[in-house]
Amino acid sequence: MLGVAKGWVVSPTDSTANFRAISAPGGRVCWASGSKGTFARTVDGEHWKTGQVAQAKDAEFRSIVAFDANRAVMLAIGEGEASQIFVTEDGGKSWTRTFRNPDAPAFYDAVAFWDREHGMAFGDPVEGRIPVLTTDDGGRTWDRQPSDAMPPALPGEAAFAASSRCLVTRGGQEAWIATGGGAARVFHSTDRGRSWTVAPTAVPSGSGSAGLFGLLVWSSKDGIGVGGDYEKDDQPGYAIRTTDGGRTWPAWGFQPSGLREAAIRYGKGFMLVGPSGTDVSPDGKAWTTVKNPGALHTVARSGKNIWAVGDGGLIARWGE
Known about the structure:
Order of helices and strands: EEEEEEEEEEEEEEEEEEEEEEEEEEEEE
Strand order of the largest sheet: 1-29-28-27
Strand content: over 45%
Largest sheet: 4 strands, antiparallel
Shape: globular
Structural class: mainly beta
Oligomer: single chain
């Protein structure tokens, strides 16, 4: 069990990039990605080395999945050809572009994997449907799923590419997508993205800056969603929970003080992270809010190791 929290300890970096994605594949290895085509990696949990993808120096890498110290997949966001996917197999020394969006209206948001070979990516609705890509070879090639596999999006509905947690996978088949804007809903697939259902949530909708930002699903029945309004971070955020496999998403008993973009399990409890604060709970009932060292956007855990990343090259490790 994790001990009594002391808070975040900043890890020095030589970067000013805004980090928005993080992946901890095991042990003390952790990767992060962000603006200016930047990625970062640690193999000892404390010392980070940063790099830049030579072919994409202006890219906004908002999603990353790492499999070990050498292999990782990163997704860059943006309209049209700005949405790209890169793969490295040598610890970031070289990167290969394996997807470049050919559809001008499309804007891809996140990538996630079930295992080392099978993964998916998705984007904001195009002609009323969320586009889904899948891979069966570790991200080296990608296939577009039929658009009618997705329920229709509602007017103004889209995803927030803020923390890479708008898309999560579980087990070998399940995938979950969180949306906001015109509607805050949760899409669910049980067959690796080939078919989908969608459920409403207790999160208010209608504002283009508000909705669900991140999901955490840890069993066939249990999950939580977090969010808020990125233009009103001084106002309470949102927290919802499902206990029936995603059929319903009522409000949780805890309401964070501001926007929360990502969540992890913390011992038997939870940790919620957002730009204005970090909430920790041993049981999901009693909560403590900890001040951030800067604007943090997402968090990852490997065993007792917990890292978060944010603006201005910020990378922090949780101290116990």
